[in-house]
Amino acid sequence: MSAPVLKIDELVTEFTIRGQKVPAVRGVSLEVKKGKTLVVLGESGSGKSVMLRSIMRVLPRGAHLSGSITYNGDNVLDKSEAEMRRLRGNWISMVFQDSLSAMDPLFRVGEQVGENIREHRRFPKTTIRDQVIRLFGEVGIPSPAARTRSYPHEMSGGMRQRSVIAMALSNTPDILLADEPTTALDVTIQAQILSLFKQIQREYGMTMILVTHDIGVAVEMADEIAVMYAGKVVEYGDAKQVLGAPAHPYTQGLIAATPQKGKRGRLQVIPGQPPAITAMPGGCAFASRCRYATERCRKEMPPHTQLAGGHMTACYKTEDGQALAQLVRQ
Ligand SMILES: Nc1ncnc2c1ncn2[C@@H]1O[C@H](COP(=O)(O)OP(=O)(O)OP(=O)(O)O)[C@@H](O)[C@H]1O
């Protein structure tokens, strides 16, 4: 089995809200293997983006990080800001949902991609220009040489997202972090961008962490899946296991709420809302929405239970289920 390229251990990310430290990420441990895609799945507000931004250390002032994020044997959290600048956009790159705000409206897109190369490499101007044109061609932008001279607002959403991807790839990073990279795009463009990611991954052997709330994207892209709820990973494992035999009631609910090909009938929406980070309950944060919840779930946070094949879940139902299975076997 290949070693993890990136390993996150007990990551806690806190914000200061009205003078109080409030965690948005509450002890996340994850790893991603070379050339593989880890999809982080969960509803809005579950802490997916904050977790991804914690890896890059691009968080608002006052945010506090603890735990460890190991990349190339070093803890990213121990690096100086100068070391982080060398890492960002060079070894680890990020693509955000909103391509318009990812680009400066005042500069031509080609210049912005070129600038990202110049920041990290001492290449002559003409080499950089050629590289930008090559990158634009690679990400499927038609007439790449002409397009490098466009301003962001002159491009369609899909083309602009392609140029953001070109920027993220410009220094052939080891790891690409993508935060809802297709959410703002219409369905056909979404499919094109996802297949572009796959193609790039094959060609560059790149490792990816992709954040999404869309199970369809997870089905399409994931080697492994981490399901996040209220700042914690509640289920983690091989994509086929997590999607095919979801163990956590939240994952089961997410899947039941997703339209499936060839299946008719009403979708089962998960009732209620996730708790706000300022009002986190003591036990399992999903308990108030879970039809299996017991008193114990409301009082104590269930520990991680290992299932077969590295599949993990944090739910007393599974733990009790396993205990029952053991009793039956005895
Ligand atoms: N700068 C901040 N200050 C205070 N709270 C924040 C800050 N940024 C994010 N949060 C809170 O942290 C929680 C997690 O947010 P996050 O953006 O990671 O969720 P998400 O799962 O990525 O959802 P979405 O898909 O809506 O972005 C939310 O409750 C959010 O309000």
Automatic annotation (TrEMBL):
GO MF term (any one): ATP binding
Keyword Cytoplasm attached: no
Signal peptide: none
GO cellular component annotations of the record: plasma membrane
Matches recorded under CDD domains: ABC_NikE_OppD_transporters
BP term (GO), one: peptide transport
Pfam families noted in UniProt: ABC_tran, oligo_HPY
InterPro entries from the UniProt entry: AAA+_ATPase, ABC_Ni/Peptide_Import, ABC_transporter-like_ATP-bd, Oligopep_ABC_C, P-loop_NTPase, Sigma_54_int_dom_ATP-bd_1
Span of domain ABC transporter: 6-255
Subcellular location: Cell membrane
Main location per the UniProt record: membrane
Membrane topology according to the record: Peripheral membrane protein
Keywords, sorted A to Z: ATP-binding, Cell membrane, Membrane, Nucleotide-binding, Transport
Similarity comment: family membership: Belongs to the ABC transporter superfamily.
NCBIfam families assigned to the protein according to its UniProt record, in alphabetical order: oligo_HPY
Protein name: ABC transporter ATP-binding protein
Lineage, opening ranks: Bacteria, Bacillati, Bacillota, Bacilli, Bacillales
